[in-house]
Specification:
19 helices, single chain, 2 domains, alpha+beta, 17% strand, seven-stranded antiparallel β-sheet, six-stranded antiparallel β-sheet, binds 6-diazenyl-5-OXO-L-norleucine, 37% helix, Serum Albumin, Chain A, Domain 1
Length: 569
């Protein structure tokens, strides 16, 4: 009897210990490895679409096109056909990294003063809400170019999952319910937007099936006629009709004349890594390069990812880099971008002299170090895909603000971007993200507005090891920089590097932003005592990434700040 009791006691104790170990393991960041393919996006539905394409024999490029269209349906806050973006590719066949620009362009009728009143003041919200805020969309041309250049599956096949999701609907998640409910008022302003997102007076609820018939028809036209299904014919008529009704500027000629551009990626080294990122018209690559190169010589032995001394150094480096962003960068087809000068080691050495390791600098005094040669919300998304052959896509696209211009094209079922706000609508006047700009980024017909999107691929000894990028407006670049530093210098796991609380400085406003709840009072007080104006920001950015280890196994991570998913097989 005693022996039986003892055995029961032993097995209960063992079960209890196993339960505790199990729970503990679950709460640790256990990384799953995959040999055949990996996808990380901001939507579990889009991640499943991408994996399905890979399993059906498509390559990473095919999967990225299918994901791009699927996100336009099931992640409408940022996924789009009415916006634009950038992508970096690693081709296993050539061993090269290439960069595609499918950024929106200003309509031909746009001009430098289009958002100013007769006294030269900025008309509130003119570059943010409605048809006049929209640039000519580039997404459909961009996704088509990816398929044409690198894809292996039929174009139509790549749109089928998105068409089905729009036509028969998908189940609204808690996350989608929350973002839609938060913006319900803004989405109710235009009747055509209300008809999609605020049907019967309420935004869609979690668990409901959300059907978008008009979007399905638009996608069907794109599937049948490729870019013509968007840039000419019925969809184009609907876009131009929407412009005429809502005083917008985009014409048939703007649409049919839209072209993607292949660009040479920004390349620089950081420690033993070769980093490739997006060149202008994104500021992402060059500013990321400045941040990492400026910080590279510092000895990190006394730093941890949370130490005020490290956060201070990071902020000082960003102050310098973002000062250059404001002055020198714009669409390279219109403005001289001194990329070599901005990344020149003698120039960066001289800039580094300004940094005081004990005290915050003063942004008004600092300015750019080169003579002048002449952003946040939630509506960007980044995803990464890798296939068994070793191909990689790192793609960011956006409609700028949450749900873009808040205007749905009547009859076509998709939201238009409000990317025009990324231009400097007036020199020195901050945009949605508090970014200021000058001549290099002033509005001109057919010009591309300066971006912060930073799709990035990192190589080591000639082999890709990391692909990443983020949403977050002006905070995209610091988000990507912090993740690379956390991996390279603090040896954090991919998931921990992404989850680590974020900090951000962008020269102006002269403020050090700390992610709310991420830093204790001692850290904040230390930073304040160094002279920083510290402000807490709610959880921000949304980073998706994948890492490839020496044994070619892949692991992915999706930011818990939104509701994405990384998965593989
Ligand atoms: O291109 C840019 O830099 C901005 N339009 C990105 C906007 C953004 O990231 C908003 N979402 N988080």
């Amino acid at each position: 009897m005693l022996r039986e009791k003892y055995l029961i006691y032993l097995s209960l104790s063992a079960a209890f210990i196993l339960l505790i170990v199990g729970l503990a393991c679950d709460s640790l960041t256990v990384e799953k490895y995959h040999a055949h393919g990996l996808v990380a996006t901001s939507s579990p539905i889009a991640t499943a679409v991408g994996l399905e394409v890979l399993k059906d024999g498509g390559n990473a490029f095919d999967a990225s096109v299918a994901i791009g269209f699927a996100l336009a349906v099931c992640y409408p806050r940022a996924g789009n056909v009415g916006g634009g973006g950038f992508a970096l590719f690693y081709s296993a066949e050539t061993g090269e990294v290439s960069a595609l620009d499918f950024r929106e362009t200003a309509p031909a009728k746009a001009d430098r003063e289009m958002y100013l009143d007769k006294n030269g003041g900025v008309v509130p919200n003119a570059s943010l809400i409605g048809a006049k805020a929209a640039g000519v969309p580039g997404t459909v041309a961009g996704l088509h170019e990816i398929s044409k250049r690198y894809g292996s599956l039929e174009w139509y096949t790549l749109l089928e999952p998105a068409i089905k999701l729009a036509d028969t609907g998908f189940i609204v998640s808690d996350c989608m319910e929350q973002t839609l409910a938060r913006l319900s008022d803004k989405l109710s302003v235009f009747p055509e937007t209300r008809a999609v997102f605020v049907r019967n007076g309420t935004t869609p609820r979690s668990g409901e099936r959300f059907i978008q018939k008009e979007l399905a028809a638009t996608l069907e036209r794109i599937a049948m006629d490729s870019t013509d299904g968007f840039y000419t014919s019925e969809t184009a008529d609907l876009i131009v009709g929407c412009m005429e009704k809502n005083s917008g500027l985009i014409s048939h000629d703007d649409l049919s004349g839209y072209r993607v551009k292949w660009r040479r990626p920004i390349h620089f080294t950081f420690d033993s890594l070769d980093v490739y990122s997006m060149p202008p018209p994104s500021s992402g690559g060059v500013i990321l390069g400045q941040i990492l190169k400026l910080i590279e010589p510092y000895d990190f032995y006394k730093y941890s990812p949370d130490s005020p001394d490290y956060i201070h150094l990071f902020a000082e480096v960003c102050r310098l880099a973002y000062a250059d962003r404001a002055v020198h960068l714009g669409d390279p087809d219109f403005a001289q971008n001194p990329l070599n000068e901005l990344l020149d080691s003698a120039y960066l050495d001289s800039r580094r002299q300004v940094i005081n390791l004990e005290a915050a600098g003063n942004s008004r005094e600092i300015g750019s170090g080169l003579p002048e040669q002449t952003e946040e919300s939630e509506s960007t998304t980044h995803f990464v895909v890798a296939d068994e052959a070793g191909n990689i896509v790192s793609l960011s696209y956006t409609i700028n603000d949450d749900y873009g211009s808040k205007l749905v094209v009547d009859g076509a079922g998709f939201l238009l971007n409000n990317e025009m706000d990324d231009f400097a609508v007036k020199p020195g006047v901050p945009n949605l993200y508090g970014l200021v700009g000058g001549k290099a980024n002033e509005i001109a017909p057919a010009k591309r507005m300066l971006s912060s999107m930073s799709p990035t691929i990192v190589m080591k000894k000639g082999r890709p090891v990391l692909a990443l990028g983020s949403a977050g407006g002006s905070k995209i670049i610091t988000t990507v920089a912090e993740a690379i530093i956390s991996l390279a210098r603090f040896d954090l796991s991919l998931k921990k590097a992404i989850e680590h609380p974020r900090f951000h400085h962008q020269w102006l406003p002269d403020t050090l932003y700390l992610e709310r709840g991420g830093f204790d009072i001692n850290i904040m007080q230390d930073l304040i005592s160094k002279g920083h104006i510290v402000k807490e920001r709610d959880r921000y950015s949304d980073l998706n990434a994948l890492r490839i280890d020496d044994n070619s196994l892949m692991t992915g991570a999706s930011d818990s700040r939104r509701c994405g998913k990384a998965d593989g097989y």
